[in-house]
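Reviewers of the previous submission asked for a worked example of the structure-prediction workflow described in the proposal, so we include one complete record here. The input consisted solely of the amino acid sequence. No template or homolog information was supplied to the procedure at any stage.
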Amino acid sequence: MGLAFCKVGFEALIDPQAVLAQVGISLDNASALSSMRAVYGGMHLVFGLSCIWGIFKNPENPLLLVLLYTIGFTLGRVSGIISDGAPNSFVVTWLITEIVSGVLAATVLILLKKNELTKVI
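From that input alone, the workflow returned the following C-alpha cells.
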C-alpha cells in the first residue's frame, strides 16, 4: 500500500484531473484542483512515504494506518454501491485492493501482537 499511496500521490500532484477523470470527476476550478492535489496528492504521498519508512522502524504504525484507511474507504465504497449502484471497473479494482490490503494489514498486526505475547510469556 505504501507504493500505491506514493503512486497516487505523485500522479495527483502532477495532474489531479487525470487521476479524478478515471471516476468521472471534472475539476473545473483552482479550488477543486488544489483540494485534490492536497488530498490525493500530498496526503497520499506522505501516507506512502510514512508507510515505507515506518515498516522498517515500527511496523505496527504503518499497518494500523493501512488498516484504518482501508476500512474507511471500504465503508465509503460499499455505502456508495448500496446507495448509488455499481461503480466502474476502476473503482471495483480499488475496492478489491483495499479489502485485500486491509485483511493483510489486520492479519500481520494480529501476528505481531501474538509474537509480542509469546516473547513476554
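Residues 31 and 37 are 10 Å apart (CA to CA). We consider this example representative of the routine output the project will generate in years two and three.
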